[in-house]
Write a structure and sequence with these properties.
It is a single chain. With about 220 residues, the chain is α/β, with parallel strands linked by helices. The chain has eight helices and seven strands. It has one domain: Vaccinia Virus protein VP39 (Rossmann fold), CATH 3.40.50.150. The chain has a seven-stranded mixed sheet with strand order 3-2-1-4-5-7-6, with helices on both faces. The chain starts with 17 loop residues before the first helix and ends with a strand. Bound molecules: S-adenosylmethionine. The site of S-adenosylmethionine has 23 residues, from β2, α5 and α8.
Length: about 220
């Protein structure tokens, strides 16, 4: 699969703070995963019992907090926005995390080409860009093809947790998962492990309701 011409992310530029630039130059090589062929997750995290992929880690607040609370799980954060990845590197260094790796790539392209089938224990998709206008809906990362793709990448019993603060996107997500027989699940209470990110805080201040979903691969 080629990289899609329709992007689910915005190209926001790579301007970084001094601390972010420093983290990139000092720590990127240590924590990034080079992708040349199919990833061997057991090689990336030889001592971890399971691997969870976080799609669109943003500034990394949730990634770092979740990884700190679950040291036996390996986390791979995928993000296109370099300053966000640098912000996560700063948190990894501050918290001395040993269970996070980073990839700068389009998550759909990465999943389709480099993540082995039946390999993931879970996927976190926290506050995917909502693309609210009708003509932008094709840019939403959750599409029927995406749901089918992740069904193949999750182990049986594996899960995807999704949170969104955009009600029409919540309806859209529910419909697409309902149409795929490889998943069971739906709306769940906000889990205690999901920390408040800057992005979620902005939505809440605008009065948005947040919906959490958990779907399990049958
Ligand atoms: C609205 S932000 C939410 C960030 C973070 N998860 C949070 O809760 O604060 C969505 C993020 O997903 C990233 N993103 C969107 N599509 C992506 C893709 N196909 N591959 C990797 N990252 C993507 C964007 O760059 C952006 O940083």
């Amino acid at each position: 699969m080629e990289r899609a011409s329709i992007r689910s992310y915005t190209l926001r530029g790579d301007r970084m703070t001094r601390a972010q630039s420093l983290a990139m130059s000092q720590s990127w090589d240590k924590y990034c995963v080079e992708i040349k062929s199919q990833l061997d997750l057991s090689q990336i995290f030889p001592d971890k019992s399971q691997v969870i992929l976080e799609i669109g880690s943003g500034m990394g607040e949730a990634t770092a907090a979740i990884a700190q609370a679950n040291p036996q799980t390996g986390y791979v954060a995928i993000e296109m926005h370099a300053p966000g990845l640098a912000a996560l590197l700063i948190l990894i260094n501050q918290l001395e995390l040993k269970n996070v790796k980073l990839i700068r790539e389009d998550a759909t392209y990465l999943l389709a080409n480099f993540i082995p089938d039946n390999s993931l224990a879970g996927i976190h998709l926290l506050f995917p860009d909502p693309w609210p206008k009708n003509r932008q809906h094709k840019r939403r990362i959750v599409q029927s093809e995406f749901v089918e793709l992740i069904a193949n990448k999750l182990k049986p019993g594996g899960f995807i947790h999704i949170a969104t603060d955009w009600q029409p996107y919540a309806d859209w997500i529910r419909d697409r998962f309902a149409a795929n027989l490889k998943f069971t699940g739906g709306v769940v209470d906000r889990p205690s492990w999901r920390v408040l990110s800057k992005f979620e805080g902005q939505g809440l201040r605008k009065g948005h309701l947040v919906t959490d979903f958990r779907y399990v691969r049958v």
